[in-house]
Amino acid sequence: MSTSTQHTNDTNSNSRHDNDEISVHLCEDNVGRHASHTDLIIATLPKSGTIWLKALAFAIINRSHYPSSSSSSENYHQHPLLTISPRDLVPFVDFKQLYPDNRLLDFTKNSTNHDSPCRLIATHVPYPSLPESIKITATNCKIVYLCRNPQDNFSSLWLFMNKARAMPMLNNNNASLSMDEAFDYFCDGVQEFGPYWDHVLGYWKESIKNPDKVLFDKYENLKKEPKTQTKRIAEFTGCGFSSEEENQGVVEDISSLCSFENLKNLDVNKNGTWRGTIQNKEFFRKGEVGDWKNYLTPIMIKTLDGLMKEKLHGSGLVFQNYLP
Ligand code: PAP
After folding, report:
1. pLDDT tens across 140-153, in order?
2. Counting Cβ atoms within 10 Å, is residue 305 exposed (0-12), middle (13-18) or buried (19+)?
3. Relative to the CA of 258, which ligand 1 atom is closest?
4. CATH class of the domain comprising 3-312
5. Which distant-in-sequence residues (6+ apart) come within 8 Å of 111 by Cβ?
6. Ligand 1 centroid vs 263 CA: distance in angstroms?
7. For the whole model, what pTM was predicted?
């Protein structure tokens, strides 16, 4: 197996087939040149908990408009997360084919984030490829990056993509990809947004260099200590919880509202369809740490382990073999 790194700043360059190509259109005019001091960028690789982070960020930032518990306020029933997919509340800036008429959303109008005090924008684009106006420290917008251990990330992606391949929107003629084939692509770094390790390292290094600008978090940490991480994200975004809020249980309310069990069982996420294409329930599969052990073979585990050690060596970023 080749483990060559094929990552470039051109995020289209790793696409496998034309049909598979998820074109990345980070629109400078749309967001880049207008990145604002109050923007919050949610950055992830696919299948690393994007929808979870979107829900959390939305709930944290909008908590004065939308309380997260029915016991604290009757306005709870108007909380947008109860009826709208987090994918719509925090839209992607880089997938034009996911939106009506194959057009990028116009973020300059801030029409997508309800009354949010800041624009919430999601992206899968690697750090080096982000528009300059987002990256420069002079623009005080912030980036929260969430990654997931490579074993679970790969397994979740493979399972999802094989479902997605059967969907007419992706026009793949139902062609499935064997796990062996998909694994080779993953290890070769052939992915829509570049190799896994380049993606995580790009944001990791920036978070060390610039901790006020980039917050780096792991899916596994969120799972293990949801309240601590919810507070950490809130503080980073400048929306830390007051002691009064903490005493009232607001942190717990937000992490319960955004928990896998709660979101998965909401009618919109159980029975809704995302923009007429994918059923929302496909974004809530198991939500567990360590499910990879049900899919990866011993040789795959060994290969991935060796590869990650090699790629992350010296960076200070460590992934254990997360077991349930
Ligand atoms: P996307 O790239 O399609 O946006 P993304 O949201 O990044 O997907 O990741 C989906 C994964 O997060 C799924 O993992 P799984 O396949 O291992 O089950 C999904 O179940 C999981 N997930 C979704 N919501 C939550 C949540 N609230 N808490 C924990 N995990 C979640």
Report:
1. 889 999 999 999 99
2. middle
3. 27
4. alpha beta
5. none
6. 11
7. 0.88
